[in-house]
User: What shape does this take?
Amino acid sequence: MGDNAWVTWVALAAVLVLLELVSMDLVLLMFGIAALLATIPALFGAAVWLAIAVFVIVSVGLLFFARPAMVERLHRGPTLQTGFTNLIGTTAIVLRPVDAFGGRVHAGSEDWTARTEGDDAPIEIGTEVTIARIDGATAVVIRKA
Assistant: This one.
C-alpha cells in the first residue's frame, strides 16, 4: 500500500461519519469506525488486502453485535407524556361540588370540568381527588384514598 494510503481510509471514515450525521442512522457510523480502524495496518505499510480485511471484519462485527444494542439503548427510556394524559393519576382540588353530572376541579395549573363515576355522594369544595381518566374535556375523578 502506498505511503499515503491511510489518508484514503481517514477520508472515507470522515465522509461516512458526516453522512451519518445527516441521515441519523447507525449503519454509516459503524462503517466510519471500521474505516478508521483500517488505517492502522495502512499506517504500518501493510498490504491492501489486510486493510480491507480489517474494514470488512470490523464493519460486519459492529453491524451485527454493536448496532442492535445501540439502537435498543437509543430507544429505551421513559416517553414524555404531553397533553392531558399527564394529568391521569394526579391530585386535583374540588372548586365546585363534583357529582355524576358535573362539577369543577383545579388540576395542575388549569381548571377542569369534572364528574364522578356512578351515583356517589357529591364531593365537597376543597376536597382532594384523584383524576382517574379524561373523558373528552371532562376529568373523571374519584375520592382520594
